[in-house]
TrEMBL record:
<dbReference type="InterPro" id="IPR013785">
    <property type="entry name" value="Aldolase_TIM"/>
</dbReference>
<dbReference type="Pfam" id="PF00290">
    <property type="entry name" value="Trp_syntA"/>
</dbReference>
<comment type="subunit">
    <text>Tetramer of two alpha and two beta chains.</text>
</comment>
<dbReference type="GO" id="GO:0005829">
    <property type="term" value="C:cytosol"/>
</dbReference>
<protein>
    <recommendedName>
        <fullName>Tryptophan synthase alpha chain</fullName>
        <ecNumber>4.2.1.20</ecNumber>
    </recommendedName>
</protein>
<keyword id="KW-0822">Tryptophan biosynthesis</keyword>
<keyword id="KW-0456">Lyase</keyword>
<dbReference type="InterPro" id="IPR002028">
    <property type="entry name" value="Trp_synthase_suA"/>
</dbReference>
<keyword id="KW-0028">Amino-acid biosynthesis</keyword>
<comment type="similarity">
    <text>Belongs to the TrpA family.</text>
</comment>
<keyword id="KW-0057">Aromatic amino acid biosynthesis</keyword>
<feature type="active site" description="Proton acceptor">
    <location>
        <position position="48"/>
    </location>
</feature>
<feature type="active site" description="Proton acceptor">
    <location>
        <position position="59"/>
    </location>
</feature>
<dbReference type="InterPro" id="IPR011060">
    <property type="entry name" value="RibuloseP-bd_barrel"/>
</dbReference>
<dbReference type="GO" id="GO:0004834">
    <property type="term" value="F:tryptophan synthase activity"/>
</dbReference>
<comment type="function">
    <text>The alpha subunit is responsible for the aldol cleavage of indoleglycerol phosphate to indole and glyceraldehyde 3-phosphate.</text>
</comment>
<comment type="pathway">
    <text>Amino-acid biosynthesis; L-tryptophan biosynthesis; L-tryptophan from chorismate: step 5/5.</text>
</comment>
């Protein structure tokens, strides 16, 4: 099922889509596959696979640490594609989140081809703007990959309009300025940003990320956004666990809590 179809189905059910994030290969390749499948089974509609990167300018300390662990274990781009394939083959809708440098190093056309072959339906590029994405726009069109660019509270109306015009699947609204990480409250800027995006395009789904860490916050964001994106809180379930089974248990519990939140939005 494509990301667009997942958002359409959720809208028909009057709820938001839950997108859960996990770095590829953290803490091992097999562990990351198990984590992603467990997240989906417990209620995450979509799994955002993060390609580990050595200079993640947008990521907070939790994602950075998890990515460092994966990189230290030798996980690279081809391993990430293999992980996506395993998770997608298990019936999990997958999008990839990656900084642009690894894609350029791999080769844009080859990367798009192999990403589509692995079963991913979309890709999020946090440090690539549409103005500089001509090669990616063409490659993603050729391979039928949904592409997601980011907008932030500092984006001008013109920048928002241009960005959403080049998105397919959904647009990623960063609810806070700064790096990722769970917060104690949801940004007050988020509803305003979502409304500004909808003024540019009423049909394109809007996913909100940066800060959601529990079911109550998920329900709050679900009240004004089409998608709720959760990363650091889920990753910490594994990062802080004393063993694999404990980590998976905590991951399932939080995924279920977040899933309950997006299915009962605060409006």
């Amino acid at each position: 099922m494509s990301i667009s179809e997942i958002f359409h189905k959720a809208r028909a059910e009057d709820r938001s889509v839950l997108i859960g994030c996990m770095p590829a290969g953290f803490p091992t390749v097999d562990d990351s596959i198990a984590s992603m499948i467990a997240m989906h089974e417990a209620g995450c509609d979509v799994v955002e696979v993060e390609l580990p990167y050595s200079d993640p300018v947008m990521d907070g300390p939790v994602i950075q640490k998890a990515s460092d662990i994966a990189l230290a274990a030798g996980v690279r781009t081809r391993d990430t594609l293999r992980i996506i394939e395993a998770v997608a083959n298990a019936g999990v809708p997958v999008v990839l989140m990656t900084y642009w440098n690894p894609v350029e190093k791999y080769g844009v056309n080859a990367f798009a081809r192999d990403l589509a072959a692995a079963g991913a339906t979309g890709m999020i590029t946090p440090d690539l703007i549409p103005d500089e994405a001509e090669e990616w726009l063409a490659a993603s069109d050729e391979q039928g990959i949904d592409r997601t660019f980011l907008v932030s509270p500092s984006s001008t109306d013109e920048r928002i309009a241009m960005t959403v015009a080049n998105c397919r699947g959904f647009v990623y609204a960063t609810a806070l300025m700064g790096v990722t990480g769970a917060r104690t409250s949801v940004s007050r800027q988020a509803p305003d940003l979502v409304e500004r995006i909808r003024q540019a395009d009423r049909d394109l789904p809007v996913g909100v990320g940066l800060g959601v860490g529990n079911g109550k916050q998920a329900a709050e964001v679900a009240g004004f956004a089409d998608g709720v994106i959760v990363g650091s809180a889920l990753i910490r379930c594994v990062l802080d666990a004393p063993d694999r089974e404990t980590g998976l248990s905590r991951l399932r519990a939080l995924s279920a809590e977040l899933s309950e939140g997006v299915r009962n939005p605060e409006k």
